[in-house]
Amino acid sequence: xxxxxxxxxxxxxxxxxxxxxxxxxxxxxxxxxxxxxxxxxxxxxxxxxxxxxxxxxxxxxxxxxxxxxxxxxxxxxxxxxxxxxxxxxxxxxxxxxxxxxxxxxxxxxxxxxxxxxxxxxxxxxxxxxxxxxxxxxxxxxxxxxxxxxxxxxxxxxxxxxxxxxxxxxxxxxxxxxxxxxxxxxxxxxxxxxxxxxxxxxxxxxxxxxxxxxxxxxxxxxxxxxxxxxxxxxxxxxxxxxxxxxxxxxxxxxxxxxxxxxxxxxxxxxxxxxxxxxxxxxxxxxxxxxxxxxxxxxxxxxxxxxxxxxxxxxxxxxxxxxxxxxxxxxxxxxxxxxxxxxxxxxxxxxxxxxxxxxxxxxxxxxxxxxxxxxxxxxxxxx
Length: 381
Ligand code: COA
What we know:
- Belongs to the citrate synthase family.
- This protein is 58% helix and 3% strand.
- By secondary structure, the chain is mainly alpha-helical.
């Protein structure tokens, strides 16, 4: 058995700086996240998700004219393409929504009239089209899982309002729209995480944007990445959610559950981060959105479960929650099925992924690491 050990192996590429990016900066020391230089908390407070998307793509905040132009474009590209609907309808209604989302993006790429065109203008337009088109995929999939018909988009509503409208078939309360918008802004971009890096690897082969994003969705599905928001809700469900329970009782129960889980050496989803070691910069803002949903729906026991798990994890291991932790229960309270949470993450991250696709292509080098061989020594048949 040969073991090449002259070179250091960076398992999981831990600590490896693979390239430059001007799109976002994650700073674990100052616990901050900047999109194109702007703190994400400020963006989440002050900008629409549509404006944040333009910032990520273009590098600068949009002018009023650019914003209005994109608003009109986005609103006119929301309808579910017939080919995509047909492809979704072939899939069983219990197909995992991440598989549905991955299939939908693949179909959108295959039927695109400029499928093979990777020029900057066409690629930016494809990114905008995908941004506008994906909510209908999630909304339709959520509805068909419940035996409900497609709801057509409405051009008089903004992105978040329309997303909730197409999903639930009624206009959402302003607080709900606001919490949803905040979640979209916070999920939009996070440097070289696994799915973004996947998108860049695929782009580096000179494949098209839809191929890169279809692949990124595959990477996002895993519970160590995007699937964690869904897994968080499974934890809550395992502990048991009882709307009649007091916040204090729920907190005591979830604290005990966490102590037991850690004693059993279980990994609890929604906690920990490869880069942030002292708390995820996005959590306070998302927790604020969760607080407002708890107040809106009068569901104090959900916050009890949340606080109990967080406190017990902190006391036992000092590990802090990541964004998926408050996002999971927020989407639950809004009425989404647990399996729909990660597709909501896709809807948001299409912005960051496509910005990285364009950045990679603008200064490309094929991404192809080396490996150290540890198989059998050379032998003959
Ligand atoms: N629950 C319990 N223990 C955890 C933990 C969690 N969520 N996250 C980390 N730990 C512990 C590990 O068991 C390990 O302990 P040990 O040294 O006693 O073995 C230590 O903390 C380091 O963990 P490790 O998995 O090596 O850190 P990492 O930097 O490779 O992992 C994650 C980062 C995100 C993969 C990891 O924290 C995790 O799996 N979290 C849950 C999934 C999740 O929420 N993902 C979304 C990320 S945004």
